Amino acid sequence: MSSVRRLMATLSSSSSSLWKNGLSLRATQSTSIVRSTALLGYRRTFRRSFVVASSSFDNDNREFVIVGGGNAAGYAARTFVEHGMADGRLCIVSKEAYAPYERPALTKAYLFPLDKKPARLPGFHTCVGSGGERQTPEWYQEKGIETIYNEPVTSIDIEKHTLTTNSGKLLKYGSLIVATGCTASRFPEKIGGNLPGVHYIRDVADADALISSLEKAKKVVIVGGGYIGMEVAAAAVAWKLDTTIVFPENHLLQRLFTPSLAQRYEELYKENGVKFLKGAMIKNLEAGADGSVAAIKLEDGSTIEADTVIIGIGAKPAVGPFESVGLNTTVGGIQVDGQFRTNIPGIFAVGDVAAFPLKLYDRIARVEHVDHARRSAQHCVKALLSAQTHNYDYLPYFYSRVFEYEGSSRKVWWQFFGDNVGEAIEVGNFDPKIATFWIESGKLKGVLLESGSPEEFQLLPELARSQPIVDKDKLENASSVEEALDIARSSLQVKASV
Ligand SMILES: Cc1cc2nc3c(=O)[nH]c(=O)nc-3n(C[C@H](O)[C@H](O)[C@H](O)COP(=O)(O)OP(=O)(O)OC[C@H]3O[C@@H](n4cnc5c(N)ncnc54)[C@H](O)[C@@H]3O)c2cc1C
């Protein structure tokens, strides 16, 4: 790119960022020349004020700051690079010691037994999870992105545009993206939630601590029958450990699975050696003579022995110091609009922590899944840096993969798209495929598929977004998953031709 074109590109993207993040107040000036001149003037003042005060701040790159170094941060960084706006302008400050990585790996390949080629960093830095370039710490250096690791941000001053970290560093920002994700929900200390041998899993340090325990464990108990519980239980039996999963609900993944679908997965888990205690309420965790966890006491008075306990009971949005930028009280998190702007100009929130308008279903939602983390980060940065003005229009997508290690008798991989509302119709016998279709008012609202082919998986988002009217009787009578998917596909065509 010639230097003139580069300057033009920079001007045009800077201008939109300045307009959009609320730093420019000259919105009434409409011609591009006036706008660029005004922005150049503004930009000089803006830069100068930073330069004058440079010695008082601990970050060099102050135009854009991302707080949080997780999935969303990694994908946001990539989008800054794609717009030519990272070099010398972007700073990432993170509580973790590592460059952003694909967090879902922590309860999948990261927990493979040590002789089964477990995943380790730098192998799964973002953005490998979506087929992109692996962004190692060196990648950030090469792209001119300043990274500050091991520094939780503890407070924000929205008047001065500054952040303070745990160690007392003072950081300046022009525009701020909050990408702090979630923290794992914990059992209170008074019921044994902090005993040695009790694990929560959110980051690499947690996963490493769990692996050290698994190396010497004999009896593992997993509390929680959601994603984390299911993935950790599948991993623990691969280590050939006595593994029990305990949860208060009647079946696995109650938020999404129907009872009959859960039954299929539970049978598979049992075949792999996992024991189940369903409908069980935990009273407390008890320590043994050495002070480490030794047992779990249930409300019904019974006790299960355990030397390693993993708690997977959900997560809470990490709003911490940012509560002041617009906490949403209905779904938690930081409230944003369809372009991830909070109610304070220049401050954005993305990923797990953001409570955003889920346009398709006309409700405010927080989504704790990696696909949303990636897409929200990309959408937010594009809106900030370019002429993009359309609102985020997310289609919920969840997936899980378990029993993937070498030597496993069966690898499991399901995907779900849409909304699990209305009546559920199940097709297939899990040998190997099964599909569940959710139908409300005659419309196909959500679909889950286990062990589909790539082409079949590709059809799911199309179905869930279009919500075609489907022939429920035909679907119920389908003799195979393939036939059911064909029926659903043909209802798409009917919709298109109407
Ligand atoms: C073990 C595990 C397995 C998962 N598996 C799946 C899966 O199979 N499929 C799926 O769709 N999703 C999965 N998820 C969810 C998915 O990983 C998250 O939705 C995604 O990581 C969210 O991205 P994020 O950037 O918003 O938050 P995160 O990736 O959690 O990143 C947040 C970052 O902010 C940092 N941070 C927090 N507070 C501060 C602060 N005050 N100052 C500085 N830094 C801070 C954190 O340390 C972290 O680095 C899984 C999550 C976990 C924990």
Descriptive key words:
FAD/NAD(P)-binding domain; alpha/beta; Enolase-like, domain 1; binds flavin-adenine dinucleotide; 11 helices; FAD-oxidoreductase/Apoptosis; 29% helix; monodehydroascorbate reductase (NADH); five-stranded parallel sheet; 23% strand; 3 domains; 26 strands; 498 residues; globular
Describe this structure in words.
The protein is globular and about 65 Å long. Helices cover 29% and strands 23% of the residues. It has a five-stranded parallel sheet. A five-stranded parallel sheet has the order 9-16-10-11-12. A hairpin with a 4-residue loop joins strand 14 and strand 15. It contains eleven helices and 26 strands. By secondary structure, it is an alpha/beta fold. It has helices at 3-20, 32-52, 71-82, 137-142, 204-216, 227-238, 259-271, 370-385, 454-466, 472-476, 481-497, and strands at residues 64-67, 90-93, 146-148, 153-157, 162-165, 170-172, 175-178, 182-184, 198-199, 219-223, 242-247, 274-278, 282-287, 293-298, 303-305, 308-311, 315-317, 334-335, 347-349, 354-358, 363-365, 397-402, 412-418, 423-427, 434-440, 443-450. The protein folds into three domains: 61-184 and 317-385, FAD/NAD(P)-binding domain; 189-313, FAD/NAD(P)-binding domain; 411-495, 2-Layer Sandwich (Enolase-like, domain 1). Bound molecules: flavin-adenine dinucleotide. Flavin-adenine dinucleotide binds at residues 67-73, 93-96, 103-104, 106-107, 152-153, 179-182, 201-203, 227-228, 318, 320, 351-353, 368-371, 373, 398-400.
